[in-house]
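User: Can you predict the 3D structure of Gluconate transport inducer 1/Pac2? Sequence below.
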Amino acid sequence: EGTQAGLLPRTTRRLTAAEKDRAVYHGAIHVFLERESGIKRWTDKLHWSASRIAGHFLMYREIE
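Assistant: Sure. Here are the predicted structure tokens for Gluconate transport inducer 1/Pac2:
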């Protein structure tokens, strides 16, 4: 809903290394549609938990 309302940007492709350095930080939200982006599992420079289903979403938690 947030992306449809224009409140959140949608990630439409994998980020480059330079983009990850700027866009991946504490509190950042990245929304992607698998069919649009081709991304099946999010990867970046951080460590993430296994996915958990939350309604129509897969949720991940950062592992420190």
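The first strand starts at residue 52 and ends at 54. The mean pLDDT is 90.
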